[in-house]
Amino acid sequence: MTLTETTETIARRYSCRAFGDRPVPDDVLKAILLAGLHAPSAVNRQPWRLVVVRDKALIDQIDVIGVETLKTADPAGYERTMGRGGLMLYNTPVLVLIAAEEDDNKYVDLDCGIVTATMALAATSLGVDSCIAAMPRNSFTGEAGAALAAQAGIPAGFRFALSLMLGYASGQPRPGHDIDPSKVIGLDVG
To answer: How far apart are the first and last CA of the chain?
Structure first.
């Protein structure tokens, strides 16, 4: 079997946990976002909004509030975050907040996951490192979280679902994660 450019991109993608300060050019960022707009969704409802945050002070605020909230909401997650330098957004220069429409759509979170993965793969294909994270959800809880969501640009009638950090690794990008072919049932892929 030969790998295609697409399967090589999928194998190469990894979760970057240390971003440098190099900005993502607008044309590259637009290409990543446009790829996301091509993502499929249940009944083509596209129940998400892609909120681009490049204001470093706002990204840092989301990070600090989220980490602080982790102390009580998820102590194990807090300890893991502190063991990785105390940041959950890893100094990302671009944070895309995937906002989910608040309605009775039972597929909205799945759809948000699909659009996020699509953008992450597009980023890798364009040489941009990424990290998908749900942990910033902690930044948008309660009354203060609602105000922060509005400040970040999440529209009324939408809630935080996922985030995608985009940028360039500080240091060497690492390879994609090890795979476990035994997780496939019904066909030997190893």
So the answer is: 12
Give residues with Cβ within 8 angstroms of 59, minimum separation 6: 53, 89, 92, 93, 95
CA neighbor of 130 nearest in space, from 113, 149, 117: 117
pLDDT at residue 31, as a whole number: 98
Looking at residue 173, what is its pLDDT? 72
5 part of a folded domain? no
User: Does a structural domain hold residue 178?
Assistant: no
- pTM of the entire predicted model: 0.93
Is the residue at 91 inside a domain? yes
- Cα dihedral sign, 183-186-187-188: positive
Q: Which domain holds residue 32?
A: 13-170
User: What's residue 189's pLDDT?
Assistant: 87
Q: Per the structure, how many domains does the chain have?
A: 1
The pLDDT score that the predictor gives to residue 2 is 63
What distance in Å separates the CA atoms of residue 64 and residue 133, rounded to the nearest whole number? Answer: 15
Q: Say which residues have a Cβ less than 8 Å from residue 102's Cβ, sequence separation at least 6.
A: 157, 158, 159
Which helix or strand (DSSP H or E) is residue 100 part of?
strand 94-101
Domain membership of residue 187 (yes or no) is no
For residue 85, give the CATH number of its domain. 3.40.109.10
Under-70 pLDDT residues of the chain: 1-2
The pLDDT value given to residue 1: 53
The CA distance from 75 to 30, in Å, is 37
